[in-house]
Amino acid sequence: MLRERRLTRPRDFAALRSNGRAWSGRLLVLVARPNSLETSRIGLSVSKRIGNAVVRNLVKRRLREAVRRVDLREGWDILLIARKGAGEADYHTLRRSIRSLCRRARLVAPPPGSEDA
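Given the sequence above, the corresponding structure tokens read:
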């Protein structure tokens, strides 16, 4: 994931948590709010409840790759919070969960050529 597409500052995370809208699934919680930028920025939160450092880093790598493969609308700040079962989930399960949450939040970009913008 490119650096300009990452949420890194604590104040951005705090603003997103306090002013964003949340959608939850069994493995993940997605929090989103519009930003005033031309790109969408993604933040990940994987706590120690998920597992040791090896497991947490594995989950973060899987989440980054799964988000990279979803065609997101531009202009959103998005936070993905891993829940307890995310440490045992494989990549494909996490990817399905992300795609489902993004569709529910209407963050998936419309197909090219469609009138929905």
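The CA atoms of residues 71 and 112 lie 11 Å apart. Try to locate this feature in the token string yourself.
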